[in-house]
Protein 1
Amino acid sequence: MEYEAVIGLETHVQLKTRSKMWCGCANAFGAEPNTNVCPICLGFPGVLPVANEEALRLTILAGLLLNCDIPPSAKFDRKNYFYPDVPKNYQITQYDGPSARRGRVDFEFDGAVRRVRLTRAHLEEDVGKNFHFERNSGVDFNRAGVPLLEIVSEPDITGADMAYEYLTALKDILIHGGVSDCDMEKGMVRCDVNVSVRPKGSAELGAKIEIKNMNSFSGVRRALEYEVPRQIAVLKAGGALSQSTRRWDDAAGVTGEMRSKEHAHDYRYFPEPDLMPFSPTEKWLEAVSARVVELPLARKQRFMRDYQLPAGDAEVFKNEVALGDYFEPLAKKSSNPKAVANWVINNLRAKMSGAAENGTLMTFADLKFQSGAILELIGLIEAKTISSSAAQAVFAETFESGRSPGAIVQERGLAQVSDSAAIEKLCDQVVASHPGPANDFRSGKAAALNFLKGQVMKLSKGKANPAVVGAILEQKLKRP
Ligand code: ADP
Ligand code: MG
Ligand code: ZN
């Protein structure tokens, strides 16, 4: 029998706020342990939480970007458990009244646009971090109370690579939307992987096995590449799988059981008595809606459609937003958007990253030239005033000095000579001084023409129009 994998992900993302969820402590990574703490995020008795409004906005913004329904009212609950990094002994979360429901993430995978439906997205708070030293342990509460958005997917993912692409697409959306920096190195994105297998085509779900607390997308992929075949092997050997939680050991490349269903937590959820349900007004929602940006995939598709760009170029502008923003107004003014894309991607981008490598960090605001220079350059090539190799040199100078391509061409006398009388004179000179190659060509050695052409170009200091040179030489050397 053939088996298939069924995967659903619960992704936790730290929101991009200045302060924590319920207090004014900084939401910052990398500070000295226990310096961004106060009685509220340390869970002292008698303190009261005050919701961070920007975190509420970012939650709804994420809901809108992920095409979720936004219920008119959301509420907060206590999820009770005892663990050293949870100072209050409960975590405030949204249990049955989340801020966003029923969304989706569309992304490209395996040559098609695929959709993973979202069950919900809810707001909660991060916990502290335990450290285990040689003889003792410590806990850092700087992270306790940092706003955390949990995005729960439907079990629509069918394999390790698709899980990876889904996570990447989700991360791109949240970064572009300004919801989170999603810096993996700083632990801003973590996820729980739920995976089961079932006979191919079966409508029933198999036993759900959850791999907790993954902190890299490649780790998720590796864990699934191990776990799916493991589950299939168990079933094929006549064994049974039961709902359980496992841990991924990245060094060993295996998952191991943490707890079975009998040992599952009972969180004893109940409504948070210190917080009102959150029911945003029309006006508040409108202000959040105004922050919705175009999704990365939609942008790619629009660039392909509106500017007839190949997928590769559109992908670059999808991933490099500032570059795409630079390209678009130019493309709108040009009759040849593909040429604009070529210049922006192959020349401008290369020059800018070259500058960055030499230690000059360049933004688009630092560019010395007017963006119209690129259109001017394309115009000069199309009018055959300069060859495309001359155009590269002109662009390099425009990039360095900010001077316009037209001015540089004029000053350096780079304008291509297409005047056939002038070129004919040069051709005659070259044929006269290289009788050998000229005869070679006459006797059928086609390659000799390139040599002669090169000599004419050299004589013209690169200014002759190469196509015209070729045509004239051929004409002259034609066998009578
Ligand atoms: P819990 O309440 O234990 O967190 P849920 O049913 O809410 O479990 O699902 C949590 C995650 O697990 C969701 O992403 C969901 O899509 C996924 N999931 C649920 N059942 C299965 C299954 N049988 N196989 C794989 N994933 C599943
Ligand atoms: Mg879960
Ligand atoms: Zn605090």
Protein 2
Amino acid sequence: MNDKTIVLAYSGGLDTSVLLKRFILEGYDVIALTADLGESDAIAGGGAAQALQAVREKALHLGARDAVLVDAKQRFVEDFAMPALHANALYEGVYPLSAALSRPLIAQLLVETAHKYGAGAVAHGCTGKGNDQVRIELGVRAIDPNLQCRAPLREQPLSRPDAIAFAREHGVPIAHTAEKPYSIDANLWGRSIEAGVLEDPWNAPPEDAYAWTASPQARPAQPESIVIDFSAGVPSWNGVSGWQLVAALNAVCGKHGVGRIDLVEDRVVGLKSREVYECPASVALIAAHKALERVTLTRDELRFKAQCDDRYAQLVYDGLWMSPLRTALDAFNASMAARVSGQVRLQLHQGSVVITGVKSPLGLYSEALATYGNGDAFDHHAAGGFIALQSLPLETLAHAAQHPVHA
Ligand code: ARG
């Protein structure tokens, strides 16, 4: 293990470029690691490959010993997004955890790259105020506690003017774009937008905060219906599954403005923050998956699973992806996912996704039992006996209150 080799999670932006250069000046051999989690493909667009190659070349140009670009789209969707889908994972009931699910994968990639290059340390550009530092560092420690994990922007916060001054002095290219009004993080499972004018929760999110979801004026006037197939919990649409399914759903649901979320959420480090998200595919898939579970799982499973699902979302949010409780909950979910097969029809219209049909070969819904029409198979007399026994404790209580026994 080489103490002077460090793997840096590298986005190509100003902050991580400055960090890369600073580590080199400190005498480190830097390996820049960039993960493709489908940010640019999320909307089934193009140009992602070239943009990421440019990030890699920038790192090499800045003096990195090597720059590693990992296409992690499939791994992200299969190993992180799908288990989260089976848990219907929504933090505080609404946020599909897009950023939170990506950090343990980034931690895995940092550790794998460190092992490959014999590096003794890894580093990231998260600040000391957010959730992402917690998620990456808990992930790294859980996999290899011998690796040092550096967070230079936590150790010494870097203002934008200082970053620009350092960049000018050391030949770090600065993109000549107007100052970014928001802090953005994106992958196939969703896009998060924070800071700037959004810091005041009374400010409505400006339309320019959104990139994947159409504005109310630009949405199609007519509703559109799509049918998602699930086979043992695995979704597909028109035969497309995996990350390509998520990309395709982001496009079709985003066109109708589905998946906008505006949330004042509780961060791991104790403060509340206002976050805006657009998560077209994940919002639609979770709604569809929940609807199919309602038809295929028993009442007791559904009631108990709802509590587990909420706990699952907390674990993911809090950076505890690597915890054995999460693995155990995955096993619990898998035991039911085997029965979650069928089709769900979704209607997309003007920002909303509405379930308009569910069917399953393994469904527990029985029209013969439920019908108020002809062919009713339900035993109405049995309900009388059920009520007599179910009400027994309550009746006993009421009798006792009416006729107290004075000892
Ligand atoms: N609040 C969200 C979360 O904690 C989004 C974080 C986005 N990260 C970022 N570096 N902008 O999961």
